């Protein structure tokens, strides 16, 4: 699975207050901000990314985050350069914090390891079932139709709490969160288990599960989980992550995101990412 993204989402749910304190702590003075901004390369748009992380990123450039990186680089008039590292433990420390790159294209809002830009999309966890299944109309994990069903869920992610609260954990099948996807692929494994009948339903982060279904599983139905009545929430705003203190660079990226939002939305929509409004209550309304 795309463990780095899911880990940041899981930690963001419990670290917003800490993130706020850290952002205040690193604000610093104007000279300090100017000094840290000198770390950002002026010769290339340097991106930290996972080399085997489809549908988000990979070395071939086929992921939707690769395409967003290409768009940003072109708007800056700079060549695109990658620092590849698996999105597992140590990713930020060994890439962004080590000054091997200057931005992570997709990062959950509120995580304290990075300074977040403005969010460029909002999405949610999704329930995936066979289109012909009696579960095809389910929109919440509290639905009685899920009782006694075998649910696939990534361990340690927010929907696992809802699975447990709804009494579904005894028959649930857990999949690993922290993995190197060059060697283990929990998302694809979960969808394979769903197709073979090992599980009755799968819960995945929407920007992972929905594009995989669009690309390879036309007989599966994807439903964003927008109706859970209790915390933790299952929708998240996704930003670009930069080094703490890089306020000048953050503002520059914010401007790029704002001016190119329609093109970013088009890339995400083409990939099959479920795009929601900022409050996570329904689909994003696209300009006419």
Short overview:
With 288 residues, the chain is α/β, with parallel strands linked by helices. Helices cover 34% and strands 20% of the residues.
Structural commentary:
- The protein is elongated, with a radius of gyration of 19 Å.
- With 288 residues, the chain is an alpha/beta fold.
- Helix 6 (158-165) links the parallel strand 8 (151-154) and strand 9 (173-175).
- It is 34% helix and 20% strand.
- It has helices at residues 3-12, 16-25, 30-37, 64-76, 91-94, 158-165, 186-196, 206-216, 247-259, 261-271; strands spanning 45-49, 52-53, 57-58, 80-84, 103-108, 115-116, 121-130, 151-154, 173-175, 201-205, 220-224, 235-242.
- The strands form two sheets. Strands 1, 4, 5, 6, 7, 8, 9, 10, 11 and 12 form a ten-stranded mixed beta sheet that branches. The protein has a two-stranded antiparallel ribbon with strand order 2-3.
- It has two domains: 3-121 and 236-271, Periplasmic binding protein-like II (D-Maltodextrin-Binding Protein, domain 2, 3-Layer(aba) Sandwich); 125-224, Periplasmic binding protein-like II (D-Maltodextrin-Binding Protein, domain 2, 3-Layer(aba) Sandwich), CATH 3.40.190.10.
Structural class: alpha/beta
| Overall form | elongated
Instruction: Name the poorly predicted regions.
Output: 12-36
Class of the largest domain in CATH?
A: Alpha Beta
Termini Cα gap: 35 Å
How much strand content do the residues show? 15-25%
Biggest beta sheet summary: 10 strands, mixed
- Helix coverage percent: 25-40%
Total of domains: 2
DSSP strand tally: 12
CATH topology value of the largest domain: D-Maltodextrin-Binding Protein, domain 2
CATH architecture of the largest domain: 3-Layer(aba) Sandwich
Supply the number of helical segments: 10
Average pLDDT taken over every residue: 89
Helix-strand pattern? HHHEEEHEHEEEEHEHEHEEHH
Radius of gyration: 19 Å
The CATH superfamily of the largest domain is known as Periplasmic binding protein-like II
